[in-house]
Design brief:
The structure holds two protein chains of two kinds. By secondary structure, chain A is mainly alpha-helical. Chain A is built from 14 helices and no strands. In chain A, helix 7 runs antiparallel to helix 10, helix 8 runs antiparallel to helix 9 and helix 13 packs across helix 14. Chain B is mainly α. The longest helix of chain B has 40 residues. The chains are: A mainly alpha, B mainly alpha. The interface between A and B is large, with 91 and 98 residues.
Chain lengths: 280, 298
C-alpha cells in the first residue's frame, strides 16, 4: 500500500489534478465555444472582450436552421443515407462474419488479410474511378451513388467487428442445431442472430457514424442542393453567408447530436466500434 | 445417416462459407478492387473519363507529376502534417491515459473525465474545421486572449498566412485525433497484470522506472499498431484541410489529397489526378503491409 500523507505525495496529487484540469480545458473548450456561440447573436460572437456565457441568450440561429426546408433536407438526406447503408452493411457483414467464424475453408486466411487491408485504401484513390462509374451508369447526384460507395467503406470494418463478436460465442450453440438436422442457415437465424444483438448494435453504431461523417464522396458525387448531406450543408453555409457564424455553430451542434446521443446512451458499443480496427 | 446423405451434407458444409461470403466479396471485388485497377488504367491514358476512346499515354502523367514542384510541396506538407499529428496524438493520448489510470483520482471523477476527454472524437471533420475557424478567426477568441496576455502583439491570421497555416491545421488535427490513442492505451493499461508493479515495488522501483521498464514495453504492440493506422489515416485527411484552408494560401497547406482532388475536379485533368492517386495508393499499400505484419506478429 502506498503511503498517502507525506507532503511530497500530496504535492503530486495536487499537480495531477491541475494537469487533469488543463487537459479538460484543452479537450472541451473548443466544443464549449461552439455550443455557447450557437446561442449568441452574430454580433456578440466577435464581441471584445469575448463573452464566455452568451450575454443575450437567443435561439435565433436554431430557428433559422430548423425553419429552412433546404437545411432540413440536408438532415433528412444524412439520416436516410446513413440509415440505409447501416441496414445493408449489417446484413451483408453478418453473413460474411458467420462464414468466417463458423467454417474452415480454403483461402480463409488470405480473404481475411484482404479485408483487413481494404480498411486502409485511400478514399481519394477510389474517388476518381467511382466518379467515372457513377457518371457512366447515370446515377450521378442520386442516393444510390452515395449508398453504394459508402457500402464499400463500411463493409470491411463491419465484417471484422462482427467476426470478432461471433468468435466470442460458443460453437456448441449452433452445432446443436446441426445435430438436430438443421442447416447452418437455420442455425444462423434461430440461434446466432438473437444472441448477437450486442455485436449487431456495435456494428450498426459504427457504420452509421462512418456514413454520417463522410465528406469527400458526398461532395463529389452529388450536385443539387436537395441531394446534399449535413457535412456538405455546413460547408455551403460557410460559402453563402461567410459571417453567419451563429447559424454555422447551430448547424454543427444539430449535426453532432446523433453521435453525441449514441455515445451517451451506448458508450460501450460506441467504443467497441471506434477501436475495432486497432485493438484486437 | 446413409453414406450418400453424409457426402451430400459434407458438400453443403464445403460450399456454405463461400455462399455466406459471396455478397461481401462481390461488393469488395466490384466496387473496390475493380476501381483500383481502373484508376491505374486511367493513369496511363490521355483524357481519361472525359473521352470515350482515350489514347495510351505511357508514363507521361507520372512524369508530369514528378516534375511538378507543387506535388513535392504537397508530399512534404503531408509528411509534416502526418508525423506531427501521430507523435502528438500518441503523446497526448499516453499522458491522458496515464493520468486517468492513476489511483490518485476518485473513480467518479475518473469516469466523468474519461467521457469528456473523448469529446473531440465525436465530431465530424467538417465540424471540427468550422469550430477551429471560429476559434482562430483574426477577431476570434484565441487572438483576443493571446493579445491580452501579451503573447502576440497584433492579430494573427492563423489560417490565411503562409507562415502559420500549416501549423494551424496540424494543431486542429492533433486536437481532433488523440482520443483513439487514449482509449486504446487505457484499455492496454488495464490489461497489464498488477503483479508486475507489485514485484517492482518490492524491488524498490521508482515511478518513472516502472513507467519505462513495465508500462511502456507492455503497451508497445498497441503503440506500434495504432501509430501505423493513425499514420495511414492521417495521410489521407481531406475535409479538415479542405474546409479550413483549401490547401492555400499559395499552396502552403496543400497535401496529397487536396492536390489530387484539385487536379481531378478543378482542372479536370483526371489522368494526371489518377497518377497522383496511384502514388498515394502505393504509399498506403506499403504501410498497410507493415501493419499486417505487425498484426500477425501479435
Amino acid at each position: 500500500m502506498r503511503k498517502r500523507h507525506t507532503p511530497k505525495d500530496r504535492l503530486i496529487t495536487v499537480a495531477l489534478h491541475v494537469a487533469l484540469a488543463a487537459g479538460l480545458f484543452f479537450a472541451a473548450f473548443p466544443i464549449y465555444w461552439m455550443l455557447s456561440s450557437s446561442f449568441k447573436s452574430n454580433t456578440e460572437i466577435f464581441a471584445l472582450p469575448p463573452t464566455v456565457l452568451p450575454k443575450a441568450f437567443t435561439l435565433e440561429a436554431y430557428a433559422a436552421i430548423l425553419g429552412d426546408p433546404v437545411k432540413l433536407r440536408f438532415f433528412f438526406n444524412s439520416y436516410f443515407v446513413a440509415g440505409a447503408v447501416t441496414v445493408l452493411t449489417v446484413l451483408i457483414a453478418l453473413l460474411a462474419a458467420y462464414g468466417f467464424s463458423r467454417f474452415n475453408f480454403r483461402g480463409k486466411g488470405s480473404l481475411n488479410t484482404l479485408i483487413i487491408s481494404t480498411q486502409t485504401i485511400p478514399p481519394i484513390t477510389l474517388l476518381i474511378p467511382f466518379f467515372g462509374l457513377v457518371v457512366s451508369y447515370g446515377i450521378f447526384d442520386t442516393y444510390v451513388a452515395l449508398i453504394l460507395t459508402y457500402l464499400v467503406f463500411t463493409l470491411p470494418y463491419a465484417i471484422l467487428l462482427m467476426t470478432g463478436y461471433l468468435n466470442t460465442l460458443p460453437r456448441d450453440l449452433d452445432e446443436a442445431v446441426a445435430v438436430d438436422g438443421g442447416t447452418s442457415w437455420t442455425a444462423l437465424w434461430r440461434v446466432i442472430v438473437p444472441i448477437s444483438l450486442p455485436g449487431i448494435v456495435a456494428t450498426s453504431v459504427y457504420t452509421f457514424l462512418l456514413c454520417w461523417n463522410e465528406f469527400l464522396f458526398a461532395l463529389t458525387l452529388t450536385k443539387s442542393t436537395s441531394m446534399r448531406t449535413v457535412p456538405i450543408g455546413i460547408q455551403l453555409l460557410m460559402g453563402q453567408h461567410a459571417f453567419e457564424w451563429n447559424q454555422m455553430m447551430a448547424m454543427s451542434v444539430l449535426g453532432s447530436l446523433p453521435l453525441l446521443i449514441i455515445y451517451l446512451v451506448a458508450q460501450r458499443f460506441f467504443l467497441a466500434g471506434m477501436t475495432a480496427g486497432s485493438v484486437k | 445417416m446413409t453414406r450418400q446423405k453424409r457426402s451430400h451434407h459434407r458438400l453443403k458444409r464445403a460450399v456454405a462459407p463461400y455462399l455466406y461470403l459471396s455478397p461481401s466479396l462481390l461488393i469488395i471485388g466490384l466496387l473496390m478492387l475493380l476501381p483500383m485497377v481502373t484508376v491505374i488504367g486511367y493513369s496511363f491514358q490521355n483524357s481519361a473519363v472525359l473521352r470515350r476512346d482515350p489514347s495510351f499515354a505511357g508514363l507521361k502523367h507520372y512524369q508530369a507529376i514528378f516534375a511538378d514542384p507543387v506535388f513535392w510541396a504537397s508530399l512534404w506538407h503531408t509528411l509534416y502534417f502526418t508525423c506531427m499529428s501521430v507523435v502528438f496524438h500518441m503523446t497526448i493520448g499516453m499522458v491522458f491515459a496515464l493520468m486517468l489510470n492513476s489511483d490518485r483520482i476518485n473513480p467518479t471523477l475518473r469516469n466523468i473525465l474519461r467521457v469528456l476527454y473523448i469529446l473531440p472524437w465525436l465530431f465530424t471533420a467538417v465540424i471540427i474545421a468550422v469550430i477551429w475557424r471560429l476559434l482562430l478567426e483574426p477577431n476570434g477568441v484565441v487572438n483576443s486572449v493571446l493579445m491580452q496576455m501579451g503573447i502576440i502583439g497584433s492579430k494573427v491570421e492563423w489560417f490565411s498566412s503562409p507562415a502559420t497555416a500549416l501549423h494551424a491545421v496540424t494543431f486542429a488535427n492533433i486536437w481532433a485525433g488523440y482520443p483513439l490513442f487514449m482509449v486504446s492505451l487505457l484499455a492496454g493499461l488495464q490489461g497489464i497484470p498488477r503483479d508486475f508493479y507489485e514485484a517492482a515495488d518490492i524491488d524498490g522501483a521508482k515511478a518513472y522506472q516502472k513507467l519505462i521498464f513495465i508500462t511502456i514495453p507492455q503497451l508497445m504492440p498497441i503503440i506500434i499498431s495504432i501509430s501505423l493506422l493513425d499514420f495511414i489515416w492521417t495521410m489521407q485527411v481531406f475535409p479538415l484541410i479542405w474546409i479550413t484552408t483549401g490547401g492555400g494560401p499559395i499552396y502552403s497547406t496543400e497535401v496529397l489529397s487536396t492536390y489530387t482532388y484539385k487536379l481531378a475536379f478543378s482542372s479536370y485533368n483526371l489522368s494526371q489526378a489518377s497518377a497522383s492517386a496511384v502514388v498515394i495508393l502505393l504509399i498506403s499499400l506499403g504501410l498497410t503491409l507493415l501493419y499486417i505484419r505487425c498484426q500477425k506478429a501479435r
